[in-house]
Amino acid sequence: MSSQSGPYFSLEVAGIVEETPDARSVILSIPDDLKETFAYRPGQFLTFGVHVDGHQLVRCYSLASSPDTDSAHKVTVKRVEGGRISNWFNDAVSVGQSLSVMKPAGHFCLQDRQTPIVLFSGGSGITPVISLIKSALAKSEREIRLVYANRDAASIIFRDELDALVADHPGRLRVSHRLDDVDGFLDGPAARAVIAEQRNADFYICGPGPFMDVVEAALAEESVAADQIFIERFEMAETEAAEAPGEAAGPGGAVEIYLDGEVHSIRVEEGETILAACHRAGVDAPCACTEGYCGACMALVKQGDVEMLVNDGGLDDSQVEAGWVLTCQSRMRVPGGRIEYPDAD
Ligand SMILES: Cc1cc2nc3c(=O)[nH]c(=O)nc-3n(C[C@H](O)[C@H](O)[C@H](O)COP(=O)(O)OP(=O)(O)OC[C@H]3O[C@@H](n4cnc5c(N)ncnc54)[C@H](O)[C@@H]3O)c2cc1C
Predict the structure, then answer these.
(1) Domain boundary among 55, 73, 105
(2) 47 phi and psi, to 5 degrees?
(3) Which of 20, 194, 230, 263 is the most exposed, fewest CB within 10 Å of its CB?
(4) Top mutation candidate among 86, 206, 294 for ligand 1, by most atoms within 8 Å of CB
(5) 23 lies in a domain?
(6) What are the percentages of helix, strand and coil residues in the chain, rounded to 5?
(7) Taking the model in full, what pTM does it have?
(8) Are residues 289 and 336 both part of a single domain?
């Protein structure tokens, strides 16, 4: 039987796979009564709430498993230098441990089309990409090309799994590895050459920011239509949007924020999002996508009148009805009130 705290469900770690010297996969056990809640589409991610050094941090990790070919839910976490949660996953998580996890979310998914698929992935960006590949191989006849960049051969996550997929699907899946220490970084001409071979394809991109910039620029130069391009960003933009989207600005005013066992009195400026106001005030409120689709910044409106301008799947109807909002997309309609970020456990 499962336990739940706000948007977080408690899931047990069923297994751990050391993938490379700096990445490991964590396999999660889903109790029968949560099977429906944790049903997912290939390319989606899970959001984890983790207590580290007395603070609760929230991070998203894509499912590297495929609902069409794998029986278990698996996320794969690569160490980030100085990163708090990626290193915690690699050093401290063990089998039998319970993790606080939100239900799957995300739009980096397959379209109902029969055109080829070209995927550009770098480093840990392979996680949603391999999920898409496994499902596309299993559920369609689409031709698939993967360009996969890594620092060196030792850093390649899922190398054996990809080799096996290529062997099992001769002629349908092509994988081109690019290694920085041998080939240098992927550049515009190399990306354009791949794109030009299959301009009618759907293009999926996930990797480090500069890698994605090169591929996006190459797609633009090759005049690929926007509806053929799908992008998943693991890194937040340098400056998160401080202004809530929408036309009329909400009035500013004081508001109480509950986070991590503490109450902070902050001021939300006119038109400012609650999340941006928290960060400006030095309150480390959780967030990830800042675009209204991941749910990492969700909080409960205990008092006050809050307007949420965008909910791109971050919350379901029952959560909205219960008073949850995405703070990256919400502003105060009238000053005053109390907003509570959920405790992960
Ligand atoms: C939708 C989505 C899916 C994702 N899927 C995956 C996945 O499948 N696999 C994966 O590995 N990652 C994935 N990520 C990235 C992941 O969520 C984390 O961002 C990543 O693991 C880094 O988190 P961290 O807590 O380790 O790093 P953080 O602690 O957030 O640190 C990140 C960087 O900031 C620096 N930093 C931290 N604190 C400070 C400070 N006070 N001052 C200055 N610099 C600082 C660190 O040195 C580090 O370089 C995904 C992200 C998103 C949004």
Answers:
(1) 105
(2) -115, 125
(3) 263
(4) 86
(5) yes
(6) 25, 35, 40
(7) 0.91
(8) yes
Among 80, 105, 130, the domain boundary falls at 105
Q: Which residue, among 101, 104, 33, 97, has the nearest Cα to 65 in the 3D structure?
A: 104
**Is the domain of 52 the same as that of 98?**
yes
Amino acid (1-letter code) at residue 193: A
What per-residue confidence (pLDDT) applies to 141?
A: 96
pLDDT of residue 248: 53
Span from the CA of 83 to the centroid of ligand 1 (angstroms): 6
The domain containing residue 300 runs over which residues? 253-340
CATH of the domain at 76: 2.40.30.10
Contact indicator for 156, 180 with CB cutoff of 8 Å: no
Is 159 in contact with 131 (CB distance < 8 Å)? no
Q: Which of 28, 48, 55, 60 to mutate to test the pocket of ligand 1 (most atoms within 8 A of CB)?
A: 60
Span from the CA of 236 to the centroid of ligand 1 (angstroms): 9
Can you give the pLDDT at residue 240? 47
Inter-residue contact 135 to 110 (CB < 8 Å): yes
| pLDDT tens digits for range 124-177 | 999 999 999 999 999 999 999 999 999 999 999 999 999 999 999 999 999 999
